[in-house]
Recover the amino acids of this structure.
């Protein structure tokens, strides 16, 4: 079994003689087209990511409603951890200490 690696692959077909300026122009225009296509794909990915987040939220709301109708407790809403990152650690400890003082 032989595997082709990028260094051993070759392109077959007619090879035409092209000046370096023409090659640069072709590659530049192809690069511009690819960047435009990529920006369109990025926009589509962003749109689909937002739609997915909305749908996940809706599914969770429906699961919570089903749980309530069954007489169960819905999933608790848990805030993101305050203990992530160096700046947040100090603030998180302060917030934690403040929360403890409020409880007492």
């Amino acid at each position: 079994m032989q595997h082709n690696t990028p260094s051993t692959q070759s392109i077959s077909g007619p090879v035409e003689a092209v000046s370096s300026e023409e090659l640069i122009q072709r590659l530049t225009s192809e690069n511009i087209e690819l960047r435009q296509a990529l920006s369109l794909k990025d926009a589509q990915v962003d749109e689909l990511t937002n739609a997915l987040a909305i749908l996940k939220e809706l599914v969770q709301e429906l699961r919570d409603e089903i749980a309530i109708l069954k007489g169960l407790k819905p999933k608790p809403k848990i805030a993101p951890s305050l203990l992530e990152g160096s700046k947040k650690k100090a603030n998180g400890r302060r917030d934690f200490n403040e929360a403890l003082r409020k409880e007492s």
Summary: The chain has two domains: 20-73, 78-104. The chain is about 65% helix and 0% strand. The radius of gyration is 28 Å.
